[in-house]
Design goal:
two-stranded antiparallel ribbon, alpha+beta, 4 helices
Length: about 180
């Protein structure tokens, strides 16, 4: 495979944050737990409301089908919670505490996701800078090799300087490869 020449373009931080906030399963779970805690709080608050119940029953009674007649009963009940106020209050306080805990957990998770995305973005930019530095070092090493070869051909320098320049080019080439990958 051919080695990539340039680093791929990195998305903007805002776009990456939006994608992460929309697609992370742990954030979806935290949001659903928060909604469940809100429903539990609503349920606890509704326990102190009065309720109205209706029951009815219809049937047949008799020794045989020819002698049976219909029976029915109806009942209505109004329940006004007066004496269980402390019980409903404690349920409501527990539900409020659970909701606050879920909200804090969701906020903490969102902050963690944002920190992860921003750290990854900084790592990506740092890696891009490392590639650029390695490529410029390779260009500089090749220029030094050309100069060392010119000095050797002119008789001004020895073979050792050319070998050292070749080694510098090889190291710079390895740095480019490692920074790309």
């Amino acid at each position: 495979d051919a080695m990539p020449v340039d680093t791929p373009p990195s998305p903007r931080v805002e776009e990456a944050l939006q994608i992460a906030m929309e697609n992370r399963q742990d954030l979806r779970r935290a949001d659903s737990l928060m909604r469940a805690a809100q429903h539990a709080l609503d349920s606890a608050r509704s326990e102190k409301l009065p309720t109205l119940d209706f029951d009815s029953d219809y049937g047949a009674i008799g020794r045989s089908p020819g002698q049976s007649h219909g029976t029915y009963s109806m009942r209505g009940q109004v329940n006004i919670p007066i004496f269980n106020r402390n019980e409903t209050r404690s349920d409501r306080l527990e539900a409020e505490a659970r909701l606050k805990q879920r909200v804090l957990e969701a906020d903490d998770l969102r902050a963690q996701v944002e920190m992860d995305v921003r750290a990854s973005y900084l790592d990506l930019n740092s890696a891009g800078e490392q590639v650029r530095v390695a490529q410029s070092s390779l260009v500089l090493a090749r220029q030094q090799l050309d100069q060392a070869q010119d000095r050797f051909e002119a008789g001004v320098a020895g073979n050792l300087e050319v070998v050292q320049a070749q080694e510098t080019v090889a190291l710079a080439d390895e740095n480019v490869i490692s920074s790309l990958y």
